[in-house]
């Protein structure tokens, strides 16, 4: 990058300089830089500071942004089903009880996916995430055809960690039935083949479905494989009372007590939902460093009771890292993490009748730094700091919800949503420009998603339960 | 009101109103006299606190968890019944607990009324109202339009105790302001501290940023207090002292990263205050920030009692001193070329207006 013959005061050539009205750095001191810029070279942030200083020091090959943009770190969605649901978004009625929702509707829709569907589904999910400011995601571990999904995602330019559908206890549906040995082999295979993909932006994780679907040998193997391959481990747990009830009936222990005892938990483990947990389980999470992916939209739509019995404030208070996920498109019909962050800031304010619950600043930390921590990527993403990957989102403030602008973080969390995202960079590469994907043909994707979604619904045999007549 | 126009409180009607007297019902209740009593007691409340501080009562209680009036009087070598009465007054102010004959500090006293308290206001309390004699002349000041003994006639004599007494609080304000301003992260900033007093802002900024340097200004008879504090903080080698009127000393154009106008605008006439803002704008580099510590009235000059009382304090002791509205200051700052205006409150009751000099710099 440096030229030994260059004059010492000559501007240093770099790939990109991103300018903004305000740069929300999320660095250690949470600096917001007025008239700031981000210097990027080789996909890495080389400096963040005042535009006046950086434009003197650097000679960028391209210059992006400008006075009307707010620059923020790409957000991190720590729980999303990128396949199985995006192509049947909204088909499941919103008044089904939890057990019916999962075992009658979701599982059967997932099982109806055919070859090619998951690639299209993953691209649709990635498009929605990128266009709303999410640059990194942790998939829920429910992919069936990993090869086509990795291939489709690589094309979009998004960053993520994902895994195949792994469980060993449920006997159905057939397409997902696995013995313990098969489940472990599937995990081992995905970690061997996809440890790192697309210049490291994509990779496999040690993901299991969780809940009460895994035997102890599978849980232990998932932990061992995570350690062996130096990746994290993620699973669903305790969105509803059925999980603690199942663990207590089987082991006489609550889920996190048992998982701690068999050595599953750790600072690279990310558990999703965690609504029905008790104080001892929270202490266990804090002691082991286990992160939680809080999915507020799912909790609302599937009636988890998160505002009544959820203990996210206590988790944060005791030092548990809580991040945010948007979950699947039938339990939470959008993948815009800004909207989910809005809910995180608001749910417990109302639930506890206490406006000091989850201030906007805390909610934004959860959506960026918290997510990066959950994915054990906090040294690479989550903030705009020197040495981190250049995952940058430019929010366009020439929009009614952005004006007037006084408190940038309040605006990001409470006023704005993903529709205001104008430009997105991942690893310094522009993947969204003027609100549209630069990497894939969006029009073709809309048409393909509609076609494939219709076919999946037809294959599933599940009824259309929309209540209003369609003429 | 009920549909019949009758009282919504029939039980009152039966026993107290026109049911017996024949007079029309009214639910008007006279306002409480409490605000009047609060004003009457104001004079006494101030002196109770000052006396307790001067006697060292809070410090003595800090050394000994809880004490009776007699025990404290013995330690402080004062009259026991008188001290007990005084401390009961402090209990009324809400700074002490009094249980079973024992006095003890409450959290407010521990935080604000101990010399080493985390947010000590001990030095601030006695000097904050200004010269006490001027309050006795307030009626005359209003009649004649000027205080009989304005501090303007001998500013150094007035400002010396004031800046010494306010240092602790303003230093804490200036230190906490870093959380909002991050001056500690600026690369080698040059600070212009006009009317610096004992230089709390320079001490805070230079203390937090090892690369920072400052030009510190105040009047001839005051600036030695700044030098003393800078010496105490080990910062003299990074400061240049420029004594004199802040509108008359030499100041370089387009050179400074921060200009501090700490609690000086309200002591000035409107014209001189505007000239100070223009001077700050010329001195700053584009992107540099002006920090204006003051007490700002609200838009209708009715809703911010602390600022309104500060206006009276200024009137009681100065010829031109006044409290102005943040809205008016913001207009002046914009006219002078500032943008990204913010009003921050680094600590309670201490407001700081912040403006950034726009890239175009000052207007011609």
From TrEMBL, chain A:
Any one GO molecular-function label of the UniProt entry? hydrolase activity, acting on carbon-nitrogen (but not peptide) bonds
The record lists the lineage as: Bacteria, Bacillati, Actinomycetota, Acidimicrobiia, Acidimicrobiales
Record-annotated membrane-spanning stretches: none
Record keywords: Hydrolase included?
Answer: yes
Q: What protein name applies here?
A: Cytosine/adenosine deaminase-related metal-dependent hydrolase
Q: Does the keyword Nucleus apply?
A: no
Write down the Pfam families for this protein, in alphabetical order. Answer: Amidohydro_1 (PF01979)
Cross-referenced InterPro entries: Amidohydro-rel, Metal-dep_hydrolase_composite, Metal_Hydrolase, MTA/SAH_deaminase
Looking at the record, the residues that make up the Amidohydrolase-related domain are: 72-431
The UniProt keyword set, sorted, is: Hydrolase
TrEMBL record, chain B:
Q: Tell me what this protein is called.
A: Methyltransferase family protein
Q: Which residues form a coiled coil?
A: none
Among InterPro entries, the record links this protein to: COMT-like, COMT_C, COMT_dimerisation, SAM-dependent_MTases_sf, WH-like_DNA-bd_sf, WH_DNA-bd_sf
Q: Which domain of life is it from?
A: Bacteria
The organism of origin for this protein: Ilumatobacter fluminis
The processes (GO biological process) annotated in the record are: methylation
Q: Where is the O-methyltransferase C-terminal domain?
A: 189-338
The record's listing under Gene3D superfamilies reads: Vaccinia Virus protein VP39, Winged helix-like DNA-binding domain superfamily/Winged helix DNA-binding domain
Would the keyword Lyase be found if you checked this record's keyword annotation? no
Query: What would be an example GO MF term here?
Result: O-methyltransferase activity
Keywords of this entry: Methyltransferase, S-adenosyl-L-methionine, Transferase
Domain O-methyltransferase dimerisation: start-end pairs: 39-113
């Amino acid at each position: 990058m440096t030229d030994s013959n260059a004059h010492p005061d000559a501007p240093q050539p770099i790939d990109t300089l991103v300018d903004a009205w305000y740069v929300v750095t999320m660095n250690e001191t949470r600096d917001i830089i007025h008239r700031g810029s981000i210097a990027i070279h080789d996909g890495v942030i080389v400096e963040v500071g005042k535009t006046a200083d950086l434009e003197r020091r650097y000679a960028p090959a391209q210059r992006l942004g400008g006075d009307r943009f707010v620059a923020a770190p790409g957000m991190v969605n720590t729980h999303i089903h990128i396949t199985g649901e995006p192509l049947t978004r909204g088909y499941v009625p919103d008044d089904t009880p939890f057990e019916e929702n999962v075992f009658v509707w979701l599982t059967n829709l997932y099982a109806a996916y055919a070859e090619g569907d998951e690639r299209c589904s993953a691209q649709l999910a990635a498009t929605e995430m990128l266009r709303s400011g999410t640059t990194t995601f942790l998939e829920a571990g429910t992919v069936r055809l990993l090869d086509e999904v990795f291939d489709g995602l690589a094309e979009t330019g998004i960053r993520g960690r994902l895994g195949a559908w792994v469980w060993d206890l449920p006997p159905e549906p057939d397409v997902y039935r696995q013995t313990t040995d098969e489940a472990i082999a599937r995990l081992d295979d995905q970690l061997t083949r996809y440890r790192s993909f697309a210049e490291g932006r994509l990779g496999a994780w040690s993901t299991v479905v969780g809940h009460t679907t895994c035997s102890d040998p599978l849980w232990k193997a998932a932990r061992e494989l995570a350690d062996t391959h130096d990746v994290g481990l993620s699973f669903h747990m305790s969105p509803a009372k059925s999980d603690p009830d199942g663990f207590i009936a089987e082991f006489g222990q609550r889920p996190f007590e048992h998982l701690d005892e068999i050595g599953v938990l750790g600072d690279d483990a990310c558990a999703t939902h965690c609504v029905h947990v008790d104080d001892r389980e929270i202490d266990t999470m804090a002691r082991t460093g286990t992160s939680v992916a809080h999915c507020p939209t799912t909790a609302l739509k599937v009636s988890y009771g998160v505002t009544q019995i959820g203990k996210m404030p206590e988790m944060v208070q005791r030092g548990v890292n809580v991040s945010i996920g948007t979950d699947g498109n039938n339990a939470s019909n959008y993948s815009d993490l800004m909207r989910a962050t809005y809910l995180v800031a608001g749910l417990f304010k109302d639930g506890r009748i206490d406006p000091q619950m989850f201030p906007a600043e805390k909610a934004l930390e959860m959506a960026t730094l918290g997510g990066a921590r959950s994915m054990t990527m906090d040294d690479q993403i989550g903030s705009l700091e020197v040495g981190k990957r250049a995952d940058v989102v430019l929010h366009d403030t020439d929009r009614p919800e952005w004006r007037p602008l006084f408190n940038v973080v309040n605006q990001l969390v409470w006023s704005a949503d993903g529709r205001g995202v104008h430009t997105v960079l991942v690893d310094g590469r522009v993947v969204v420009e003027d609100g549209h994907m630069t990497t894939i043909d969006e029009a073709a994707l809309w048409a393909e998603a509609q076609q494939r979604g219709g076919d999946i619904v037809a294959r599933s045999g599940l009824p259309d339960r929309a209540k209003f007549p369609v003429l | 009101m009920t549909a019949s126009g009758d009282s919504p409180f029939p039980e009152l009607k039966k026993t107290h109103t026109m049911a017996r007297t024949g007079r029309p019902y009214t639910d008007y209740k006279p306002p409480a006299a409490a605000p009047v009593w609060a004003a009457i007691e104001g004079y006494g409340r101030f002196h109770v606190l000052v006396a307790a501080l001067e006697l060292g009562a809070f410090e003595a209680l800090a050394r000994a968890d809880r004490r009776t009036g007699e025990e404290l009087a013995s330690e402080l070598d004062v009259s026991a019944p008188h001290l007990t009465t005084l401390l009961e007054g402090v209990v009324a102010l809400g700074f002490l607990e009094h249980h079973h004959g024992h006095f003890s500090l409450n959290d407010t006293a521990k935080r604000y009324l101990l010399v080493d308290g985390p947010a000590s206001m001990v030095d601030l309390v006695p000097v904050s109202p200004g010269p006490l004699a001027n309050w006795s002349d307030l009626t005359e000041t209003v009649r004649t339009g000027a205080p009989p003994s304005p501090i303007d006639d001998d500013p150094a004599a007035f400002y010396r105790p004031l800046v010494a007494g306010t240092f602790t609080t303003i230093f804490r304000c200036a230190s906490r302001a870093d959380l909002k301003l991050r001056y500690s992260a600026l690369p080698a900033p040059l600070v212009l501290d006009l009317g610096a007093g004992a230089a709390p802002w320079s001490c805070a900024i230079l203390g937090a940023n090892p690369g920072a340097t400052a030009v510190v200004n105040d009047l001839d008879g005051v600036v030695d207090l700044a030098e003393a504090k800078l010496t105490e903080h080990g910062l003299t080698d990074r400061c240049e002292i420029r004594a004199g009127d802040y509108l008359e000393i030499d100041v370089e154009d387009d050179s400074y990263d921060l200009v501090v106008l700490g609690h000086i605008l309200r002591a000035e006439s409107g014209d001189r205050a505007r000239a100070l803002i223009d001077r700050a704008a010329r001195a700053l580099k584009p992107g540099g920030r002006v920090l204006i510590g003051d007490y700002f009235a609200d838009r209708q000059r009715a809703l911010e009692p602390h600022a309104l009382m500060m206006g009276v304090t200024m009137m009681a002791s100065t010829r031109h001193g006044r409290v102005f509205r943040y809205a008016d200051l913001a207009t002046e700052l914009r006219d002078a070329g500032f943008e990204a205006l913010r009003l921050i409150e680094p600590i309670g009751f201490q407001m700081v207006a912040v403006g950034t000099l726009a890239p175009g710099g000052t207007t011609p």
